[in-house]
Design brief:
Distance between the termini of chain A: 37 Å
Helix content of chain A: over 70%
CATH superfamily of the largest domain in chain A: MetI-like
Structural class of chain B: mainly alpha
Number of strands of chain A: 0
Order of helices and strands of chain B: HEEHHHHHHHHHHH
Number of domains of chain A: 2
CATH topology of the largest domain in chain A: MetI-like fold
Strand content of chain A: under 5%
Order of helices and strands of chain A: HHHHHHHHHHH
Number of helices of chain B: 12
Number of strands of chain B: 2
Largest sheet of chain A: none
CATH topology of chain B: MetI-like fold
Strand content of chain B: under 5%
Shape of chain B: globular
Radius of gyration of chain B: 24 Å
Largest sheet of chain B: 2 strands, antiparallel
Shape of chain A: globular
Oligomer: heterodimer
CATH architecture of chain B: Orthogonal Bundle
CATH architecture of the largest domain in chain A: Orthogonal Bundle
Number of helices of chain A: 11
């Protein structure tokens, strides 16, 4: 890898710069090595995904869908056959919907304040915002557990939502902040100068410009929320079970193929959303 | 009136926008840390009542350390191994993406994120399947009679992948490697190509040009990536529970067990606090080391 720095890093072909034959051959060998390595890494990254998708078509011999038995479409025809998994999925979706909307609003307002204004205490706000990201989930989970315990709160849906908003908040604020960096705020002044009201300016100038950032932040926090196990397990109590909790708790007794079906469906859904986004931005770039 | 009245002016506006979010962070992040510390210094006077008394009980900390020292050491060494593997695997890929991928760059970059579309737990269960006794990895090794070799180099333990430290480290590496690739890619992508060609003119050996230009400029990415992989791996216990056995148990499972099963809150809180303190000190030392490195380079 070290030697590859020789080749021009631009995407254009290097051209007839090199006259000596020896080093050139060595270079192509080395850059090929880099390509082979990257290909291997991609195979490794995708191996478990291939397994998850393939095993959604498996008819497992026992309770564990971990060794290949027989091809079947049965799981796909009955994706919600396991009632407790479906119920847990519904809980997860509800938690994610509620907490992501709140986290996006709170985080979006924070991002707006930080990127648009200069004010005293900005550095401190930034530190408090980054701290949750550098705190291990286990510590965040256990600290929330002690708080809810000390305040004698009922563990359940509400405490889970509180926790999910908390760990999504920093991600939302930082994502939106990164997206609006370099945004020309004088556009707002122009609108105001032309007689627009502040609210109308926000609605017609500011909001459309920060909307892609808000969308990205919402999707990111949705993914984080629906996937979280460690923090949730601390604050969920005995009667609220999210999808990841259901899978983890049952892991020693069963792994039904419906889990793979749901995972594959989510993969296809988010994958196509992402492909659509990439395609649209490519199209826009060409126009 | 509108002319002099910019939306960016106004003293109180930023505080108004910040206050709901900040309130959330204070109430549910800073205050809980304080309660965690208080419980870590408390005693439980009656074993049968869920009541705690704040008594500056420092012995909770020393008890937790002496009781869970193996798990603490194990967590940090697994996380360190996984982080090093993430750099070794991720740096070349990030380099390829930044400088060699050409027109496929955005597609390949998006592909790094694809594993995230499958739940963390389900990905890890998929590794259980791959590495298990009837899985493809072991079948491959046995068909090509490689088991003795993999045993010798420590990839397997007496012919099995699963329930070994290696499997846990592999799981951690897999689950967190995108967090290493992306920041390194971002820092490499920022490098001005002109700098590299200037470097090629100045240093004859390509190796030297890499070491003196590309590597130092990519260190912030490596630093961010290390934090993003080391901290969650050290605290994670899903990989240890699903891919390991009793002997690979990490600190996260112990904290969770103490809180949720044994209801030993003071010791659990103390352990949680010690874990966070070690991480914080480690991060500061690491920042200092890497910072001075950058200056001298």
């Amino acid at each position: 890898m070290t030697a590859t720095a020789t080749q021009a890093p631009s995407t254009e072909p290097v051209g007839p710069v090199e006259q000596v034959k020896g080093p050139r051959q060595r270079r192509t060998l080395r850059s090929r090595w880099l390509g082979v390595w990257s290909a291997l890494v991609y195979i490794w990254l995708f191996a478990p995904i291939v397994v998850v998708v393939a095993f959604s078509f498996n008819d497992p011999a026992g309770k564990f869908n971990t060794s290949w038995n027989q091809f079947t479409l049965d799981n796909w025809l009955h994706p919600f056959a396991k009632a407790d998994y479906t119920a847990a999925l519904v809980v997860s979706l509800k938690v994610a919907a509620v907490s992501c909307v709140i986290a996006t609003i709170l985080g979006g307002l924070m991002a707006l304040a930080i990127s648009r204004y200069e004010f005293r205490g900005k550095g401190l706000v930034n530190i408090v915002l980054v701290l949750p990201l550098t705190t291990p989930e286990i510590v965040m989970g256990s600290s929330l557990f002690t708080l809810f315990f000390a305040r004698d709160l009922d563990f359940g849906f509400t405490t889970v939502v509180i926790a999910h908003i908390l760990f999504c908040l920093s991600f939302v604020a930082l994502t939106i902040q990164a997206r609006v960096r370099g945004f020309d705020w004088s556009l707002e002044d122009a609108a105001l100068d032309l007689g627009s009201t502040p609210w109308r300016t926000f609605r017609t100038v500011t909001f459309p410009l920060i909307l892609p950032g808000i969308g990205a932040a919402f999707l990111l926090s949705f993914a984080l929320s629906i996937d979280d196990y460690i923090i949730t397990s601390f604050v969920a109590g005995d009667h609220t079970t999210t999808f990841p909790m259901r899978i983890f708790n049952a892991n020693k007794t069963e792994i039904p193929p419906q889990v793979n079906v749901i995972a594959t469906a989510i993969l296809v859904f988010t994958g196509s959303l992402m492909a659509l986004g990439t395609w649209r931005s490519l199209k826009r770039a060409k126009l | 009136m509108a002319g002099e009245n910019s939306l960016r002016k106004g003293r109180r506006a930023p505080y108004g926008l910040l206050s709901p979010g900040m309130l959330w962070l204070i109430l549910f992040f800073l205050v809980p840390m304080w309660t965690l510390l208080r419980i870590a210094l408390s005693t439980k006077p009656n074993a049968f009542l869920p009541e705690y008394e704040f008594t500056w009980e420092w012995s909770n900390f020393s008890d937790a350390v002496s009781r869970f020292q193996p798990e603490l050491v194990r967590s940090f060494s697994y996380a360190a191994a996984a982080t090093i593997l993430c750099i070794a695997i991720g740096y070349p890929l990030a380099y390829y993406l930044a400088f060699k991928a050409g027109k496929y760059r955005s597609v390949l970059l998006a592909m790094v994120m694809v594993p995230f579309f499958i739940s963390f737990l389900i990905r890890t269960i998929a590794w259980q399947t791959i590495l298990g006794q009837e899985g493809p990895a072991l079948w491959f090794m046995e068909t090509f009679r490689l088991v003795t070799i993999t045993d010798a180099i420590g990839l397997t333990s007496s012919g099995a992948f699963l329930n070994t430290p290696q499997a846990v480290i592999l799981g951690l590496t897999y689950n967190f490697v995108p967090f290493m690739i992306l920041p390194i890619y971002v820092s490499l992508e920022k490098i001005d190509p002109g700098l590299i060609s200037a470097g090629q003119d100045l240093y004859s050996a390509p190796r030297q040009a890499f070491r003196k230009i590309v590597l130092p400029l990519s260190l912030p990415g490596v630093f961010a990536g290390t934090l993003l992989t080391f901290i969650p791996s050290a605290g994670d216990y899903i990989n240890a529970e699903l891919l390991g056995n009793v002997k690979t148990s990490m600190i996260g499972s112990q904290i969770s067990k103490l809180f949720l099963k044994e209801s030993n809150y003071p010791e659990a809180a103390a352990l949680s606090f010690i874990f966070m303190a070690i991480i914080t000190i480690g991060v500061l030392v690491y920042a200092k080391l890497l910072g001075t490195d950058e200056l001298s380079a």
